Give the backbone structure.
Amino acid sequence: MLEIKKILLVGSGNVATHLGINLKKNNYIIEQVFSRNLDNAKDLAQKVDSDYTNKPKNIVKSDLTIIAINDDSIKDVIHYLPNIPTVHTSGNTNINILKNNFTNYGVIYPLQSFKKKMGLNLNDVPFLIEANSKDFENNLIELCSCFSEHTFHINSLKREKIHMAAVFACNFSNHMQVIAQEIMDDEKINYQLLIPLLKKTFSKFEEDPKIKQTGPAIRKDINVIENHLNLIQKDEHREIYKLISDSIIKTYDNTD
Amino acid sequence: MLEIKKILLVGSGNVATHLGINLKKNNYIIEQVFSRNLDNAKDLAQKVDSDYTNKPKNIVKSDLTIIAINDDSIKDVIHYLPNIPTVHTSGNTNINILKNNFTNYGVIYPLQSFKKKMGLNLNDVPFLIEANSKDFENNLIELCSCFSEHTFHINSLKREKIHMAAVFACNFSNHMQVIAQEIMDDEKINYQLLIPLLKKTFSKFEEDPKIKQTGPAIRKDINVIENHLNLIQKDEHREIYKLISDSIIKTYDNTD
């Protein structure tokens, strides 16, 4: 196994910040932060007590490079980077993007949406790990285990599908609440009225969501569905209402 | 104001059960449970220490009738009921369904989805109240205030729209998790892997969902969206993915 002690951190956003701080806390040395945005690089460098640069020619060779930048920029940045063991942190980018530039390469993907002001504890965050060799994979598992209790070996295709499932489970269900809020706002009713119901609905994620389903669609209550379709003011919302209600009806038709 | 002490409970399902038990606990007398299903009527009658029947001719005259049955059956049952003050508990049924049969009529709608085995405390449940006179409305507010801290006067149209908003916020977002689970199951990955992310996403309902949105659509990350559309195996899920992503993109286009 490789000896990993010093790290080159590429990026200065939320993921880079969370990883950098947690690595430093666990006695890894962040040698340098490399970021296009020099102010952000400086900010993060101060937090992790490291050098920083926005100039490719000044990049240092470390034990491991962690690329924590947006998906689209990964293909551009790799041309600047030295051939040292290198990982990216993207849910949706194949490991092979790193294939031609590095001898040891891999992915450490934290299954969490990072916001600037969230707590820094990564203990509960699952890390999905992949590498081009068993040895390097073990390195990455050791690295991630220092701040997370949940590390999993997951290949690129599975990781992309998990990321897609997370988009449904989190982003799309949040948008359902955005639409609900819009409907309430149109009626000048406080959205907060729905909070007790939301809290009840989303109190037990451990339970099978299929068993928890309620509402007019699962009851095949066509009168209520028709009435709602008439009440909806935005065509876009009506289309969503129709499509999801149909999908709910189908889901329980197949299993009954 | 009317004197309400004795209650005729029509229905023996979850709502009838929750209301009956809470009313009895607050010193109202459940005089009779009337339900098509005699076994259920008997079960509930034992819990609230009342008479029960499934025969229209045996229905007693009480101070108040509470109709807590499914929406479609309300129009049928009202023909059997005596002209005493009467309310239904439906989110989606206009108050006027009661107009021709009763002198005093109204609605008490608990904004909660009731499951058989949930706790019986209705303290946090908002009750949306409507009546055909101010006096009777005050009666109903007094009644509901005995078990809920949150009573609101809301007319039928607004109530129907709130119910519709709740379908989006709760039923539809739950279905997004059903789809996520299906995607994970297809990959033979444990759905529980998403739980930390779900908990983070749905920890603070008090926050504006519009501000909490994350994911590829709000970032207009067309590459990720395209990749997900390619990865999705079910046409139905692909259509939902497309429609909701478009809706997210539009939502933030208008406000930026």
Notes: Chain B has a mean pLDDT of 94. Residues 160-255 of chain B form a domain with the N-(1-d-carboxylethyl)-l-norvaline Dehydrogenase; domain 2 fold (CATH 1.10.1040.20).
